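Running this now, will post back.
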Amino acid sequence: MRICGWVIRRKTIGKIVILEISGDTSSKPHVIALKKEREPELFELARDLPVGTALCFEGELAPVQKSRRGVEYIAKEIKIYSRPLEPLPVDTIGKVPALLDTRIRYRYLLLRNPAEKAIFKIRESILRAAREYFIKNGFMEIQTPKIVAAGAEGGATLFPVKYFEYNAYLSQSPQLYKQMLMSSVPRVYEITPYFRAEKFDTPRHLNESWGIDAEIGFIESEEDVMNVLENLIAYIVDYIRKNNVEELEILGVELKPLTVPFKRITFKEAVDILSSEGVEIPEGEDLTEAAEKKLGEIMASKGYDIFFITRFPWEATGFYYMRNEDGTTRKFDLDYKGLELSSGGQREHRYEKLVEALRDKGLNPEGFKFYLEAFKYGMPPHGGFGLGVERLLVKLLGLSNVREAILFVRDRNRLIP
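Update: finished.
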């Protein structure tokens, strides 16, 4: 058996050298104990190895597993590939905690740390599980443009880019393109980056984040979309519980299964609940972050960690949501422990109504001509959602900041590494 990795800990006890090695096959470290009497050459080699050394070793599982920190092996051969030129700027064993700024700067090194690696192995599982769920349910994976001529969410949060003689932007969402594809493919999904030029510097905001987006055609109502979303999240949680036992143990997280269907409350009910607790929401406005957090606490006290908010007012939604006769829309949000994980709903599929909605939102239909054209050729009723990967990971693992849930952070103040 050949295992490669980096020394994250070296300890000498008398005539024994213990090496802990972070490799790519396990979140827990690989441990080799080298005895001077049994492996004199390897003992001498290992005795002065600095933390951070890149090496491979040939060996076999130890018949008796004495290490409580990792999986123990008996090494027969060690090959050194690279020693660090200077001491590492972070403690990869995790004994000395690093500040968040330091973790962000040196994450490429801290992935050698079992806990840091565990977070990102679970992130990988979220995406694996999502793909597995969509494939099983007849969805086609798509890729939409990330350089676009118009934004789905609004001009104020667009990043402009140079694109020859044209005005262009980084994509906020695959929203418009997913809808266009409903004219031919009734079930699509994409795992995609979002770019939003919001000048927020909070524990829940990033300027480049990742999402799991889906769109479904021939629906009866937004309930069809909510059913897909809640079953997707329950599937992801079950997948992690089954495939990431080691990582959950390292992080000390007990991940409970989610039962579907999730609780549903209307936006009006949410406003009334908050009002009863002294939190007022101005008419026609969306929930603030503080209100969202408070609502999460109230719902949790009633036994609902995860729940949908439905029937948002038209004034607080995007132009593409279908309107009801009472002035509400078929938009929903999914909140989990006080944080919005996802937004979605049934879209407006009728051409004339869509043009009217654009004008009502103060937008020029001419700027969306490429999008509107798709609605002329037999567009079915449809809807979809976008699910934030970092936000989901934060809530599943009890992290305190979305920056802990993405490898390379792009926020208001970070453009490197």
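The two ends are 35 Å apart (CA to CA). More later if anyone needs it.
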